[in-house]
Amino acid sequence: xxxxxxxxxxxxxxxxxxxxxxxxxxxxxxxxxxxxxxxxxxxxxxxxxxxxxxxxxxxxxxxxxxxxxxxxxxxxxxxxxxxxxxxxxxxxxxxxxxxxxxxxxxxxxxxxxxxxxxxxxxxxxxxxxxxxxxxxxxxxxxxxxxxxxxxxxxxxxxxxxxxxxxxxxxxxxxxxxxxxxxxxxxxxxxxxxxxxxxxxxxxxxxxxxxxxxxxxxxxxxxxxxxxxxxxxxxxxxxxxxxxxxxxxxxxxxxxxxxxxxxxxxxxxxxxxxxxxxxxxxxxxxxxxxxxxxxxxxxxxxxxxxxxxxxxxxxxxxxxxxxxxxxxxxxxxxxxxxxxxxxxxxxxxxxxxxxxxxxxxxxxxxxxxxxxxxxxxxxxxxxxxxxxxxxxxxxxxxxxxxxxxxxxxxxxxxxxxxxxxxxxxxxxxxx
Length: 430
Description:
Blueprint: H1 3-29, H2 32-53, H3 59-78, H4 84-92, H5 106-114, H6 121-131, H7 137-144, H8 148-164, H9 174-196, H10 208-224, H11 229-242, H12 268-284, H13 290-303, H14 312-325, H15 329-343, H16 345-353, H17 356-359, H18 363-375, H19 379-392, H20 396-407
Helix pairs in contact: 1-2, 1-3, 1-5, 2-3, 6-8, 6-9, 7-8, 9-10, 9-11, 10-11, 11-12, 11-13, 12-13, 13-14, 14-15, 15-16, 16-18, 18-19, 19-20
């Protein structure tokens, strides 16, 4: 096995096994710091050994065993003599008889634990993304549109608060579910988004393992809370987005806009399931929440047989509903993109420009401006906006797409990337 093969195996194991290892250690030792540090040390050992020893037949089991040994070593170093009885309980009681309660999945249980009401909502989400999804601090900072240093401090404070307040790692009861579900849904959506459009500068545009895990956990949550409209809405939203994955990246690795995708490559079964969930929620007559509205927007996109058939007036109306429910700069940006389809780029650009203060560090903001300026014939300003978007772009596929759009300024052809639209035709999902 070459060093490159080992590194690839370690990277794959990190994406697939991090959450499982951390969840297992947290359940056993009841300490997030110990779980995270031991898991990180296990992966460090893998980096040292796997190139020479080869990848073990079961990487997840190897990593969990190694992490457990690292955790035990740390506990032995830190515990005092009069703590020996407690130490022995922690070291050798694997707690296998613990009742699983309402959530019978270690990773979903860990999400609920990190989403404890004692933490602020943003702290809950950031901590869970780190501990459960294994996202790096830069990736989480990008998701929250904040500086890496600020995000690192936020995660550190969240773990410190859990330790100081002696918040236990425990199985949430059925009564806990409703109080914590909003934070859990937000985390699952952010995990899915990182898989849908990766933020790493040297990564490919997609991380299918993350989208698959987010969908798996949301299905479990749906089974736990079958009457919760937002749980159903989030599952529908994920399915309708995931259905397009096979058509989203060209053979060369570049992102493909929605209006250029081969709709025959979309997953019809996932689309049908997503549409069914949307219809079921509409039939209840209950006012929809954020995820249900976003799912409805994606249902409109995936209902169009061809891009030019997209019902943009319905999409704008759904965004209006979303704005009334909870206005945000990102919602306003996506609404402006949809408005451009109906009323032209000038009106949309005016709305986008009002978002500069809040979204000036957001790649989609600059890419959206670049497309609107292009359509207005303002090529110099469009190029500058594309340059800024490329500077902020996350993955290789996104960078390649934006670079091509910039280099084609003044030429005929299709333009746009994953947050904007090509206005002369119907476009991709906001």
